């Protein structure tokens, strides 16, 4: 249990540093770009999976 407490404490500290610092806007922009990249890759993998089965 102590291990999980330490892990969540570290995650909370990192989130606080990123959230209260100026990095949050940049990280949000990068996250939006990555979201759309992975969304396109997901759709392409679905299409290629359907074509491969036929």
Automatic annotation (TrEMBL):
The keyword Cytoplasm does not apply. Keywords: Cell membrane, Membrane, Transmembrane, Transmembrane helix. It holds the Pfam family DUF1328. Signal peptide: none annotated. It comes from the Bacteria. One of its GO terms (cellular component) is plasma membrane. The chain crosses the membrane at residues 7-27, 33-52. Coiled coil: none annotated. NCBIfam families: PRK13682.1-1, PRK13682.1-3, PRK13682.1-4. HAMAP family: UPF0391. This is DUF1328 domain-containing protein. It comes from Dyadobacter psychrotolerans. The lineage of its organism: Bacteria, Pseudomonadati, Bacteroidota, Cytophagia, Cytophagales.
